[in-house]
Amino acid sequence: DCIIRMEDCGTEKSITAQAAVNDGEVVASLDERLLGRVAAEDIVNPSTGEVLVRKNELIDEYMADKIDVADLATVRMRSPLTCESEEGVCAACYGRDLARGTLVNQGEAVGIIAAQSIGEPGTQLTMRTFHIGGIAQGGQQSFLEASQAGTVGFKNANLLKNAKGEMVVMGRSMQIVITDANGQERAVHKPMYGSKVHVKEGQTVERGIKLYEWDPYTLPIITEKGGTVKYVDLISGIAVREETDEATGMTQKIIVDWRTAPKGNDLKPEIMILDKDGEVVMNAAGHPMAYAMSVDAILSVEDGDEIKAGDVIARIPREGAKTKDITGGLPRVAELFEARRPKDHAIIAEIDGYVQYGRDYKNKRRIAIVPADDTQETIEYMVPKGKHIPVAEGDFIRKGEYIMDGNPAPHDILAVMGVEALANYMVDEVQDVYRLQGVKINDKHIEVIVRQMLQKWEISDSGETTLLKGEHVDKAEFDLANEKAKAKGVREATGEPILLGITKASLQSRSFISAASFQETTRVLTEASVQGKRDKLIGLKENVIVGRLIPAGTGGATMLVRKIAQDRDNVVIEARRKEAEEAARLAAPTEDIVGGDVFSSGLVDTPESRDE
Known about the structure:
Layout: E1 4-6, E2 15-18, E3 20-22, E4 25-28, H1 30-34, E5 43-44, E6 51-53, H2 61-70, E7 74-77, E8 89-90, H3 91-94, H4 110-129, E9 143-145, E10 150-155, E11 159-161, E12 167-169, E13 175-179, E14 185-189, E15 196-197, E16 204-205, E17 210-213, E18 218-222, E19 227-232, E20 240-244, E21 251-255, E22 270-274, E23 290-292, E24 298-299, E25 306-307, E26 312-317, H5 318-321, H6 329-337, E27 347-348, E28 353-360, E29 364-371, E30 379-384, E31 396-397, E32 402-404, H7 410-417, H8 419-436, H9 443-453, E33 456-461, E34 472-474, H10 475-488, E35 494-497, H11 502-507, H12 512-516, H13 521-531, H14 540-546, H15 553-587, H16 607-611
Parallel strand pairs: 1-8
Antiparallel strand pairs: 2-7, 3-4, 5-6, 9-17, 10-13, 10-16, 11-12, 12-15, 13-14, 15-17, 18-26, 19-22, 19-25, 20-21, 21-24, 22-23, 24-26, 27-32, 28-29, 28-31, 29-30, 33-34, 33-35
Helix pairs in contact: 4-9, 6-8, 7-8, 8-9
């Protein structure tokens, strides 16, 4: 039911557009993504200071080329997601009508266009995913080259020199920043844990220089200090199995799930690093160096080995740590739009803070994040044992980073990172599926659908309004209740947007006729009749069902004309009413006239004016 209802809603909100990069190659450049959108702020060329696009201007091909040449990294643009118009979207937030190449007209049914644009290529996706999984396509990338020339800078650097003299990344929040001559950030890269960095801070690099590399197939566990290896609970046959590779004759020790073995629940397989006196070595943060092993890890050291700082003690196969998603094609798109929680979904940190391990339970571990500032409370998470936890005790972790690997649940992204991060995630994930098939879909279609998924708000505090805590209401209802509260000068309600899958979102639409025509007809209609609901026939489906003109396209124009005529009638009627009242007031003081009022009001009661 997304229809263009107005020219400009005047919102100041916007989202950030940036080039989409997949495996080091740019799959959708910034100018491609900005074409046909409206700029949310002046876009300025960083090197010359020239204004390329003014605020609220539609970006056409000529401007997009200028932006491409100016080499900008990110741009703020208007989006249907942040549009503040009631019922539907405004033309400025939507941007260009993709069929005509001009700013979209009022009355265009962009919701239906979006649904069709995503659904149509889907007819071809079904046939192809059947033959190919998803992971077999595309080689693994193992290094990253500088995409821009400039000077290298490190942020949150935590590097360790290993025995070979290579610099290894030990932290999880390190960033490599490339700045140009004007000090503008050109590119920001996040090397993952265990990557080898090939550049130094302050070094000048050209395009195509290798910045860092990593092992694409395994995730290393690296020691911070040297010492002697001691196996703890790594019992052969229960927690460890030995595998001999027939081709090379080499034997590998692989961790198996020890909890299934008898008495296996009490085990805590880990590797400790001891010093010469047999004491456990402490790391820089003052915690004992014990590395918990997760299922399927391959041990790289033997019990009693001498190791140096920066050595790898175990490797976790990345297929295990990162079976990101083999389901390609339609099932993946459906999963995203239905907002289902993935099976082993990642756990996302809700605050900035330091990691602290709590006590272990039968098959869970407790991990707490102690906030960096004392105003917030400590948050605890339960992580299943045997799962790889990418953070060590005492690590500083930022809001939005993963405590457990896996696919994040979209609800968590919304709750922790907000609407914009969710939008970026949804757009990128859906686009990945279609790009794999070589289908180009404009981002705004996905954004329109995500907007429909985000139309409900959950009330977290009812304030002094009529809303109830925990209730799901429309954004419009929420705003209306708060405006009333503001006018009375009482406490307003607070709430946050929640994510509903598209099926649920259409069942909870404000029009019961539209919901009944979709699914669970009896339930929708009984609920509507019990609550005494009214349908104002605002959307498309309900108008089709009752046989009126739809409020889009020419039907929308007819409605507009009807409304203008009604408003004009109302003005005339109001003027006559005032005239009659004035005349009555003038005639009132003479009380000696027997009988009623001489002036009968010339008020015409038309069917249109009754509802007003």
